[in-house]
Amino acid sequence: PFSWTALDDRAVDTGRLLAMDAVEKVGNGHPGTAMSLSPVAYTLYQQVLRHDPTDPQWPGRDRFVLSAGHSSLTQYVQLYLSGYPMSLDDIAALRTWGSKTPGHPEHGHTEGIEVTTGPLGSGLASAVGMAFAARRERGLLDPDAAPGESVFDHHVYVVASDGDLEEGVSGEASSLAGTQELGNLIVLWDDNRISIEDDTNIAFTEDTAARYAAYGWHVQEVDFTAGGDYREDPRAVFDALQAAKAVTDRPSFIRVRTIIGWPAPNKQNTGAIHGSALGADEVAATKRILGADPDKTFDVDPDVLAHAQQVVERGRKLHAEWDQRYLVWRENNPERAALLDRLRARELPHGWAAALPEFEATEPGGKGLATRAASGKVLNAIAPVLPELWGGSADLAGSNNTTIDAEPSFLPEKRSSEMFPGHPYGRTMHFGVREFAAGLIANGIALHGLTRPYAATFLIFSDYQRAAVRLAALQQLPVTFVWTHDSIGLGEDGPTHQPVEQLSALRAVPGLDVVRPADANETAVAWRTVLERAHRPAGVALTRQGVPVFDRTEFASADGTARGAYVFAEADGGKPQVIVMASGSELQLAVAARERLQADGVPTRVVSFPSHEWFDEQDAEYRESVLPPSVRARVSVEAGVAMSWHRYLGDAGRAVSLEHFGASADYKTLYDEFGITADAVVAAARESITHS
Amino acid sequence: PFSWTALDDRAVDTGRLLAMDAVEKVGNGHPGTAMSLSPVAYTLYQQVLRHDPTDPQWPGRDRFVLSAGHSSLTQYVQLYLSGYPMSLDDIAALRTWGSKTPGHPEHGHTEGIEVTTGPLGSGLASAVGMAFAARRERGLLDPDAAPGESVFDHHVYVVASDGDLEEGVSGEASSLAGTQELGNLIVLWDDNRISIEDDTNIAFTEDTAARYAAYGWHVQEVDFTAGGDYREDPRAVFDALQAAKAVTDRPSFIRVRTIIGWPAPNKQNTGAIHGSALGADEVAATKRILGADPDKTFDVDPDVLAHAQQVVERGRKLHAEWDQRYLVWRENNPERAALLDRLRARELPHGWAAALPEFEATEPGGKGLATRAASGKVLNAIAPVLPELWGGSADLAGSNNTTIDAEPSFLPEKRSSEMFPGHPYGRTMHFGVREFAAGLIANGIALHGLTRPYAATFLIFSDYQRAAVRLAALQQLPVTFVWTHDSIGLGEDGPTHQPVEQLSALRAVPGLDVVRPADANETAVAWRTVLERAHRPAGVALTRQGVPVFDRTEFASADGTARGAYVFAEADGGKPQVIVMASGSELQLAVAARERLQADGVPTRVVSFPSHEWFDEQDAEYRESVLPPSVRARVSVEAGVAMSWHRYLGDAGRAVSLEHFGASADYKTLYDEFGITADAVVAAARESITHS
Question: Could you report the predicted ipTM of this complex, rounded to two decimals?
Answer without folding.
Answer: 0.98
